[in-house]
Amino acid sequence: MAVDEAHCISAWGHDFRPDYLQLDGLVRLLPEARVLACTATATPIVRDEILERLGLAADTPQLIHGFARPNLALRAAEVMAKRERDRLVDGVLVETLSAPGAEAGTAIVYAPTRRGTEEEAGRLARRGWAVEAYHAGMAGEQRDRVQNAFMAGELEVVVATNAFGMGIDRADVRCVAHLAPPGSLEAYYQEAGRAGRDGDPAVCLLLVSPGDMALRRRLIENDANGGAADAELVRHKWNLFLELMRWAEGGSCRHDAILRYFGDEEETLAGCGRCDVCLRLADEPEQDEQQLTTLVRKALSAVARVHTRFGLAAAVKLLKGAADPRLQRAGLHQTPTFGALGEHPEEWLLRLLRRCVTAGWVDFSGGDRPVVAITPVGREVMHGRRPARLLLPPLLRYARAAAGGRAAQGEVAAGASFQGGLRMPPHAAGPSPASDGVELDARGLDLFEALRAFRLAEARNQKVPPYVIASDRSLRDIARLRPATPGALELAYGIGPAKVERYGAAILDIVRQSNDDS
What we know:
22 helices, globular, alpha/beta
């Protein structure tokens, strides 16, 4: 029995391939059959869920290789306006395809909405590119025509939603650009991985904007029928999206960060030398840890002031000390937080607060008009009871932008992206496997695998998906911290008092056993 695209059992199962959820019944009907499950994008937690869904043993052999794509130059850039987005897309198309009619290859541009695909396709057509839109709202015959034209080399660019790509295997895709982030790092890497399949250099550009987080949260909280989604599933999908946003923020080699995210430690390169972070990270100065803590605590105090009342923009205005009717009506302009970080540009403050969201210290609620809220963990950080482990946004670009002039404009026009933050010492960086730049050593990897086995066993005992027990990020943080006490265990990402009470004794026993074995 062979299962292709096996990640559909977990990451896409409920939304994209519900029939995959019936495969465990087929396995039971064929008790003597050998089972092979294949996927190009499966994190350890997804692999655990594949085992759980198919009823396979925890010690089922897992062959992991081939995630490395060093010919892809991975980039991420934050855009504040459509004009900037257009410049970056135009720039990467010229960089990779030279010019319309040059026959230098093809490109795929992913847009988040059907309307967006048609608008961007029209814009690129006006610039001379042979381009078509592709989305699920088009008639089947029209979609087939576009796909066939792309495969035949009649189109230089396809602007599509994520409906485009399954079964697409054109070797000369020189560029994949995302106008907005998809739902997870798995989805991004699968779509970006359609570039450069001939082994030649290709560029993958991910664009993010300040409204992406609130929009994605709203989409996650509503299922396909517009009703409320399961709370645990919402939390899981939100965390998957935050992993992508952490990766976009950067801080370490983008290529190696993805390999670590998928559990492919052996193929890491200690820096690919091609991604935007590798090209510029060496030029960034180190950030003082005390300064980091001060900045983060002030930022979180602003969120606490506007907690569940206003959105992220109001918290930015509060930190900047900018005039805002909402702050005046609420009396927040008279608080010590007003202007607490007034020396920083508003754009930088927004980036700082967004990183607090990805760290799990700030959350959104409120449906169509989301407001921000400080989380319990965020309050711990704000009061100094937890460390402020975070990569700060870079200051250089924002200082130039605040000063105005041709230098800042030229940097954007040349296609410069935000470079993922200042390089931090390992103990000060965030614990995300997708962004911290710290690899687990051999002992840490062994402990991580032991924790995975525990997670899978607990998931089967409780008849819940493995992500309900703990995320990969949590297990990796435990493997790195190697806690010896319940209090130390709570320092791991996603491990609060409730999980410590329920699983703490077993987890600490696994850590102790690992220490004894080593």
